[in-house]
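Structural biology now treats backbone shape like a language. To illustrate, our science desk offers a sequence and the tokens encoding its fold:
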Amino acid sequence: MFDRQLNRLQLELSITPRGPVLIRRGRSGADPTRPNLEWVRTTVDGAPSVYLPGSSLKGVLRSHAERLLRSENIPITGTFDENARKKFNQSDRGDTVHVGTCPLGRTFGSLALRSRLAISDHLPGGSDPPGSPARQAQLEAANRTEDRNGVAIDRLLGSALPGALYDQEVVVAGRFDGRIVLHNFQLYQLALLLFLLRDLDDGFVQIGSSTTRGFGWVSASLRRLVIESRRGKLPAGRLGGLGELESPEMATRYGLFGGDHIDLPDGWTVRRDAAGLFDRLELGPDHRDELESRLGAGPWQRFLDASKKGAWVA
């Protein structure tokens, strides 16, 4: 499944806080003047800076994807399900593992199957050239953090614990830029990713800590989306997923569903990449609604119909 590259996607994303956001570091530092709960930091352009870890964003999206799929009555294997741990071992064939893995695991990975989806760390002004005024402005805005106070609650008594006052460092501004990559995907998986990012932007999903206290609301803006498919595998004017690009024999072996394609609107141009290996479709934010609509009415609906016939297992 992963020994060849049949299609790939690169989605450039910008995350902007709409209020206080806290992505906590693992432990408190030794400096007593710092907040008890600090933002994670890395080095950007030679100086310490807050950043949004890709693992934090991926965890939130995976959790919400599980809710969406369960809401459609699609059987899902829990990430830490003990039966799932015993279901496969390293000697099992790849097609056997893929057929026995639920749609969530096929997209985000499982204990037995690697993830198709990778999310980079999102850095302040990450889409701007290093050292540019625009990047520097985003770095300064993101690192102009604020402190918010909190108090720990005794779960038994429902009152404040003595001496349990703490402070939190939150980010309230700045634009965090990164990218999401999909390898060898079916179009229902692309549709699911776009739906998740739409819910994140609409405020139905929050990131970080203290979300029940009002933290974690962000906007998620798609800057650019590039889809590349192996050259010559599809007729002109059509976008296909792995179910369309693989041979019928391999599609059956790996449990891929048919009809994995959409017709492209007039004016959407597919070009050959520089190496001549892939047909390349590049879209901007203005194309997002049309792409979501076609994916939702086509491959996503066919995926849901297939799941009702018992095509997916948990």
Notes: The longest helix spans residues 288-308. Residues 173 and 193 are 25 Å apart (CA to CA). The mean pLDDT is 88.
